[in-house]
């Protein structure tokens, strides 16, 4: 079994008297991606801040690399990488100079800068001022900086938010590669499709409560109580039917009459599970 690198144990957080996180429990092992999914204001960033020692929980314990996050010192930053909105990139420095600056602080070799620039596909752009990069390229530079020192744990707050689908796909490929190298990735998103594709485990967070936790497949199967089918007939009409005795007879008759063009089962998605459990859409 893979080594556990993060544990949230009964974490609650209040700002003044306002409860923002309520009794969160979750864990992340090396070589895995954990997705924290929830709409704006659900408490995702607050959870990252607690895990990285930037905020103290009101109750409960958070552990990172075996250390209680309330007792970590700055040496922990040698082992973690954090990517949030505030990119911390210097616009007037080139791509290379930006990484060189952080490499000095983190005592990372020049060879590693070359390696990471190739990995994120920015080697050709290394002499460009960071301020002239596209949004997707900037995001890749931020990611390059965060993984420069080969952290054991990487925190990503909405890594593909606002990116076009093909750039988002490139970021996904990079994250898979990093995960396969053994990095543990804690990812927040409100993109359920991204989560279903990327994450080994997901926590569905609503108003500070984890309403569902497991692998995306486990969660969808658990909510696949009423089986449904969509059909398109040769007349062009489409139907979504629940699996009842009456509908099975209807479908069998259409089959016998050879009037079915397409027939699919409709399994729940993380999006539909979230809607079912909370009555609200994610995005
Ligand atoms: N320092 C703070 N003081 C008071 N309230 C705060 C503070 N930080 C966050 N909050 C509140 O806590 C709640 C959760 O915020 P958080 O930033 O964790 O949400 P989020 O899920 O990351 O949202 P988003 O997807 O918009 O980034 C929000 O209602 C927010 O207003």
Structural class: alpha/beta
By DSSP (H or I, 4+ residues per run), the number of helices equals 9
Q: Helix-strand pattern, N to C?
A: EEEHEEEHHHEHEHEEHEEHEH
Return Rg in Å.
Answer: 23 Å
CATH class of the largest domain: Alpha Beta
- CATH homologous superfamily assignment of the largest domain: P-loop containing nucleotide triphosphate hydrolases
Mean pLDDT, to the nearest integer, reads 90
Indicate the low-confidence ranges by residue numbers: none
Could you give the distance between the termini? 35 Å
Overall geometry comes to globular
Q: How many structurally independent domains?
A: 2
Key attributes of the depicted protein:
Rossmann fold; six-stranded mixed sheet; 9 helices; binds adenosine-5'-triphosphate
Briefly characterize the structure.
Helix content is 33%, strand content 29%. The chain has 283 residues and is α/β, with parallel strands linked by helices. The chain has nine helices and 13 strands.
Structure description:
The chain is an alpha/beta fold and 283 residues long. The chain folds into two domains: 4-216, Rossmann fold; 225-266, no CATH class. It is 33% helix and 29% strand. The chain is built from nine helices and 13 strands. The chain has helices at 44-51, 95-106, 110-119, 135-147, 165-180, 192-198, 216-222, 245-256, 270-278; strands at residues 4-15, 18-29, 33-37, 59-64, 67-68, 80-83, 153-157, 184-189, 201-206, 209-214, 228-233, 238-242, 260-265. The strands form three sheets. Strands 6-7-8-3-9-10 form a six-stranded mixed sheet, sandwiched between helices. The longest helix has 16 residues, at 165-180. The structure holds adenosine-5'-triphosphate. The site of adenosine-5'-triphosphate has 10 residues, from α1. Pfam families: ABC_tran. This is ABC transporter ATP-binding protein. InterPro entries: AAA+_ATPase (IPR003593), ABC_transporter-like_ATP-bd (IPR003439), ABC_transporter_ATP-binding (IPR050763), P-loop_NTPase (IPR027417). Keywords: ATP-binding, Nucleotide-binding, Transport.
């Amino acid at each position: 079994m893979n080594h556990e690198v993060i544990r949230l144990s009964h974490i609650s957080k209040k700002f003044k008297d306002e409860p923002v996180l309520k009794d969160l429990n979750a864990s992340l092992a090396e070589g895995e991606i954990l997705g924290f999914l929830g709409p704006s204001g659900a408490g995702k960033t607050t959870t990252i801040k607690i895990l990285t020692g930037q905020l103290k929980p009101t109750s409960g314990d958070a552990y990172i690399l075996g250390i209680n996050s309330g007792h970590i010192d700055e040496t922990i930053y040698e082992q973690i990488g954090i990517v949030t909105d505030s990119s911390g990139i210097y616009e007037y420095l080139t791509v290379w100079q930006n990484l060189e600056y952080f490499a000095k602080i983190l005592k990372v070799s020049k060879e590693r800068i070359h390696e990471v620039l190739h990995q994120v596909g920015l080697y050709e752009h290394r002499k460009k001022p960071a301020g002239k990069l596209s949004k997707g390229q900037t995001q890749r530079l931020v990611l390059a900086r965060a993984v420069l020192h080969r952290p054991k744990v990487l925190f990503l707050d909405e890594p593909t938010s606002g990116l076009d689908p093909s750039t988002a796909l490139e970021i996904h490929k990079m994250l898979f590669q990093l995960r396969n190298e053994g990095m543990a990735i804690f990812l927040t998103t409100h993109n359920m499709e991204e989560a279903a594709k990327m994450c080994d485990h997901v926590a569905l967070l609503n108003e500070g409560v984890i309403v569902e936790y497991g692998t995306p497949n486990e969660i969808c199967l658990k909510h696949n109580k009423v089986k449904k089918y969509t059909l398109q007939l040769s007349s062009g009409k489409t139907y979504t039917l629940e699996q009842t005795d009456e509908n099975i007879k209807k479908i069998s008759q259409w089959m016998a009459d050879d009037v079915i063009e397409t027939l699919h089962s409709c399994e729940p998605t993380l999006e539909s599970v979230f809607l079912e459990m909370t009555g609200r859409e994610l995005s």
